[in-house]
Amino acid sequence: MALIINGEEIDDEVIESEFRNVKGHYERTLQVSCCERDSEFRGYAKDNLISRVLLNQESVRRFPEVEEEEITSRLNRLIEEAGGETQFYLNIGMPYKNEEVVRENVKGGVRLDKMLGEAYGAEPEPTEAELRAAYERDLASYMTEEMVHAAHITKSLQGAKSRQEVFVSLREIRQQLLAGEDFMTLAEKHRADEQQQIDLGWFKRGEFMEEFEVIAFSMGEKEVSPVFITQLGFHLCTVLGRKAAEPMPFEMVKEAVRQRFIEAYKDEKFNELIARLKAEAKIEDTDPPEDADNGGH
Predict the structure, then answer these.
(1) Is 128 contained in some domain?
(2) I need a labelling partner for 139 at 20 to 30 A (CA). Which of 13, 66, 217, 281 fits?
């Protein structure tokens, strides 16, 4: 047994599962490859499990009994939020209905909420000055999104003799543009039909195809892109204008600032609780050091 917390043994399979979850998160965010950070991730996994177990132990100590009505109320709310009982059981990975197991898990959630409610205390009421200070401190969180105004010349592969033919055609158009020809004039000349849109207007990231946005948001005003391809065909693009991200007015985001202020307060109280529980706990980690497993290498 690798981890014992106040006498409660944590199964190796539970640790391994949490390790895979942690590593998977970093792999999805492209922050790791292969195994070079496995020791670090295993430490994160154990720390996560220690925190959860200590919170559960403390909530049971403070609230050993939970009213059945509270469990039923919370369970009904969870089922409603899931869109029905069938979807609820699918969401929690339970292939068949086992209400006894579910109610026990929900009871733990009720206990945890009660304990955290005690730990947080009354919700703070920040003053206008505190909110404005928080706004200035976290200004990067209250920015508008960068936008570009772009136009493009595009040629579909449909009906073309070859991809090379289409590529060469657009490459020649690009050379004319670099020599000083007007983009919109050439775009009109080479428009496939009246329905084909040339001026794409203003847009932010996430509104167009990623292949197109990567090019457009990498360019300066009036710059002509290289020839590039998307699922719609070959393109040339130019940026007609740019709007940099800028701070939104305080009054517009005041409620969001207040919510962020309260969340920061709760995070601080939560971390204080975890630190105290860890300081008071008896935690035994019987795993051998990582280098011992590898013969000291």
Answers:
(1) no
(2) 217
Q: Which domain holds residue 231?
A: 147-243
Per the model's pLDDT, the better-predicted residue between 288 and 181 turns out to be 181
Average pLDDT on 96-105 reads 89
Element (H, E) at 238: strand 233-243
Place of tokens 């590529």: 167
pLDDT tens for 114-153 read 999 999 999 999 999 999 999 999 999 999 999 999 999 9
At 66-95, the pLDDT tens digits run 999 999 999 999 999 999 998 998 888 887
- Report yes or no: 86 and 218 within 8 Å, Cβ to Cβ: no
Q: What is the 3-state secondary structure (H, E, C) of 177-196?
A: HHCCCCHHHHHHHCCCCCCC
Look at residues 204, 211, 208, 217 and name the one whose alpha carbon lies nearest to residue 143: 204
Whether the CB-CB separation of 142 and 253 falls below 8 Å is answered with yes
The pLDDT tens digits of the residues spanning 277-288 come to 999 999 999 876
Angle, CA of 223, 225 and 228, to the nearest 5°: 170
CATH assignment of the domain containing 238:
3.10.50.40
222 and 275 inside one domain: no
